[in-house]
Write a structure and sequence with these properties.
Blueprint (H helix, E strand, L loop, with lengths): L11 E14 L11 E13 L2 E10 L9 E10 L7 E12 L5 E10 L3 E2 L2 E14 L2 E2 L3 E2 L2 E17 L2 E13 L3 H7 L4 E11 L4 E13 L2 E15 L1
Antiparallel strand pairs: 1-2, 1-15, 2-3, 3-4, 4-5, 5-6, 6-8, 7-8, 8-11, 9-10, 11-12, 12-13, 13-14, 14-15
GO cellular component, one term: cell outer membrane
Pfam families: Channel_Tsx (PF03502)
InterPro entries: Channel_Tsx-like (IPR018013), Channel_Tsx-like_sf (IPR036777)
């Protein structure tokens, strides 16, 4: 995937992965979204190269419901340093949600990122992208939501620290969707949307983690206005 334009292979520096199990509760945040509990399993995988990096996950949701009511989500987020030595990147994000009840949705984002805001204790990796969409929604007034869907400003950030001789991480991912097309704005409740999460993770053993995540969104996930959800997960890193 990450190869230099002159034909030389990118140098692999690190590979990581994680398996997590737990549940989310739509009714335990500041807003009662009234969607109940969601038992889930998540597989994360990523790699870092000298010319870029990628992170991906596959998530199975609503495992406590019959098969026809379950939700599957997969994501890929990649950065590639087009100019060797530069921290500006060509970025791409693919985010797909497969849902029998509410329909499928594929978000395709292509833009510019930056990998220069890093330190031994943490990082913030911002990006700005064009947003293309493929989903099942058709508006009686505006037609299909599929097509150009505006722009996205986002970032991924994390901070590592020790406390009481234990290792902890606070992380955040955040996206602001802007200038949505009319059909998608109708479906989601507005021309702009917010989507993200803040997670507190305790690495209580060398490979085991326990995390609490505050999931927040506004005019997103089929919810009009601001909503949130709490997630609780146990993970194994490899």
């Amino acid at each position: 995937l990450f190869s230099c334009f002159n034909g030389q292979a990118a140098e692999l520096k690190r590979v990581y992965g994680k398996l997590s199990f737990g549940y989310g509760d739509w009714n335990k945040g500041f807003v009662n979204v009234d969607r109940g509990e969601v038992w889930k399993a998540v597989a994360d995988f990523g790699a870092v190269f000298d010319r870029g990096e990628f992170a991906s996950f596959y998530e199975m949701n609503v495992l406590n419901h019959p098969v026809e009511g379950r939700n599957h989500v997969t994501q890929f987020l990649g950065h590639y340093r087009v100019v060797e030595g530069s921290n500006f990147t060509a970025m791409m994000k693919l985010y797909m949600s497969m849902e029998n009840k509410f329909g499928d949705e594929l978000n395709m984002m292509y833009g510019v990122g930056y990998l220069g805001l890093t330190s031994p204790s943490g990082f913030i990796k911002p990006y700005f992208a064009v947003h293309n969409l493929s989903n099942d929604y058709t508006s009686k007034k505006y037609g299909q939501a599929t097509g150009f869907n505006g722009y996205v400003l986002g970032w991924v950030a994390a901070y590592n620290f020790d406390m009481f001789n234990e290792k902890f991480v606070i992380s955040n991912w955040n996206e602001v969707e802007m200038d949505r097309n009319d059909a998608y704005a109708e479906q989601q409740g507005g021309t702009t949307g917010l989507n993200g999460a803040v997670t507190f993770t305790w690495k209580f053993m060398p490979r085991w983690t326990a995390s609490v995540s505050y999931r927040y969104f506004n005019n997103k996930l089929g919810y009009d206005g601001y909503g949130d959800r709490m997630n609780y997960l146990i993970g194994f890193e490899f």
